[in-house]
Amino acid sequence: MRTRIALAAFALFAAATAAQAETKILVVRSADVVRDSVQFKAAEAKMKAEFEKRRADIETQGKAFGDDVKAYQRDADTMSADQRAKKEKDLNARQVDLNFAQRKFQEDLQNRDRELTQDMMSKIKDVIAQVAKEKGADLIVQDPVFASPAVDVTADVLKRLNASAGK
């Protein structure tokens, strides 16, 4: 009876080992793919171009507002009560508008960044799937703590992704 159990356990272990030997696992370092891809660099430049003018406008408005606040603080003692009240109301309204513009800019920037990231990750996943099929992989592990260079396909994915950038 013990011999049968031992033989069954040995057979089960051998079958599991054989199945494991047939499984082909590869790895990809997605941060490297994103950082080094032509698409990421193009998307980053596009986003910078889209938002640089707005950023500069908001900074200019902020500087002008700061200058006006300093001028008000300097001249407040020489103003009449009506002039002070009018200037304070104007400065408060401008500050609210400036804060809103800054928040809206940050939201738009984050939303655009999220859109570009999702689009890029979709492309990267497609390329990873293509490379996995070509290499006969059963499993691709993304961003492992350690992986032998023999199973790392990051360079292949990056090469394929960059080649598809011109299409």
Order of helices and strands: HEHHHEH
State which percent range the strand residues make up.
under 5%
The count of helical stretches stands at 5
Shape field: elongated
Number of strands: 2
Question: What structural class should be given to the helix and strand makeup?
Answer: mainly alpha
Q: What is the alpha-carbon Rg in Å? A: 30 Å
Query: Sheet with the most strands?
Result: 2 strands, parallel
Average pLDDT number:
86
What is the CATH topology?
Protein Binding, DinI Protein, Chain A
| Poorly predicted sequence stretches spanning 5 or more consecutive residues | 6-12
Strand order of the largest sheet: 1-2
Domain count, please report it: 1
CATH superfamily: Skp domain
The rounded distance between the terminal residues' Cα atoms is 66 Å
Q: Roughly how much helix do the residues carry, as a percent range?
A: over 70%
In the CATH scheme, the class would be Alpha Beta
The CATH architecture category equals: 2-Layer Sandwich
